[in-house]
Write a structure and sequence with these properties.
The structure is a homodimer. By secondary structure, chain A is mostly helical. The first copy, chain A, is built from five helices and two strands; from the N terminus they run ααααββα. The structure holds a DNA duplex (30 and 30 nucleotides).
Chain lengths: ~110, ~110
Amino acid sequence: MGLTKTEMFSDLQNEIATLAKAFGHPARVAILQHLFKINSCVCGDLVNEIGLAQPTISQHLKELKNLGLIKGNVEGTSVCYCIDGENWVKMKEVMNQFLDQDISQDHCC
Amino acid sequence: MGLTKTEMFSDLQNEIATLAKAFGHPARVAILQHLFKINSCVCGDLVNEIGLAQPTISQHLKELKNLGLIKGNVEGTSVCYCIDGENWVKMKEVMNQFLDQDISQDHCC
DNA sequence: TTAATATATTGCAATATTACAATTAATGGT
DNA sequence: ACCATTAATTGTAATATTGCAATATATTAA
């Protein structure tokens, strides 16, 4: 169906899934890595840096912005994006809470 | 198109995206959380625990198994699943390398 | 105001994902 | 062998995602 039954899961489970989905596409991973590298924001340079068309990049940026992982600032005719440090830290806390669960002797398998 | 252009991205970027995608659905998050909690494996209990139909759970388990995040052992008529501790740690290293990038003063935004 | 530049939005085609009914396969018990 | 139980597979319908051409919007420069 393609329709995730979010109502069956806890808020935390849905939040983890939503955040993880943001990293579930290499273009968004590449965008974020570039924003970390070129700490002084970037905009349409991303279109050149990554090989995808402008509307495609714009769409990925929108998703990341909706999640609060990046911020965008209009500067003349271009828009400057950068990591939202505060929200990035919050995101990491959520993800680490999930990733750092204790692996108690995997007996059975 | 729904067709991710993986060839445009590095192996690491694609790996991060593939791993993240595994956590991009609350059912798989719930499955993994349950496997961590009930460290002594589980099988079709997951079908009861989570509310989805058996084939749906089976499909999610298959994805997690293909990525190596869980292991499955046949035990009579049932199959026992558990976290693959070794691969989980490897996955964490990859994800943390990405998540723990330095946030250098977000100037601009 | 007009032109140029940069980005966002819209619309659409193609592929991917999710979910499940129906079925099949595998194992154990009788 | 037969039945019951459990899990995997297959097939299919519905929704989601990705990507881009075309267009719209916004800002600056002339």
